């Protein structure tokens, strides 16, 4: 997984992995959530990937728009 840049220095996200059909996000504490196109929607996945690579806004976006629409928790 790629370390999340956390440019705001306030994010709960620590790492991410961009996949063809989704994104895996690791949170402080170690929980990893897999968000897929089928569970979250292609527009949300595209924005999550963009924010992950940018290093800012991913946790806020998930909490405001995606919430519990993840495929599974690892």
Describe what you observe in this structure.
- The protein is an alpha+beta fold and 74 residues long.
- The chain has one domain (2-73).
- It contains three helices and five strands, in the order E-E-E-E-H-H-H-E.
- The protein has helices spanning 37-40, 42-54, 58-66, and strands at 2-3, 13-19, 22-27, 32-36, 72-73.
- A five-stranded antiparallel beta sheet has the order 1-2-3-4-5.
- Strand 3 and strand 4 form a beta hairpin.
- Helix 2 (42-54) packs antiparallel against helix 3.
- It is globular, with a radius of gyration of 11 Å.
Describe the structure concisely for a colleague.
The protein has 74 residues and is an alpha+beta fold. Helix content is 35%, strand content 30%.
Q: How many structurally independent domains?
A: 1
Tell me the major beta sheet.
5 strands, antiparallel
String of helices and strands: EEEEHHHE
How would you classify the helix and strand content by structural class?
Answer: alpha+beta
Portion of residues in helices? 25-40%
What's the gyration radius in Å? 11 Å
What overall form do the CA principal axes indicate?
A: globular
**Termini separation (Å)?**
14 Å
Mean pLDDT, nearest integer? 97
What percent of residues are in strands?
25-35%
Adjacency order of strands in the biggest sheet: 1-2-3-4-5
Number of helices: 3
Extract low-pLDDT stretches: none
Assembly classification: single chain
- Number of DSSP strand runs: 5
List the topology elements.
Layout: E1 2-3, E2 13-19, E3 22-27, E4 32-36, H1 37-40, H2 42-54, H3 58-66, E5 72-73
Antiparallel strand pairs: 1-2, 2-3, 3-4, 4-5
Helix pairs in contact: 2-3
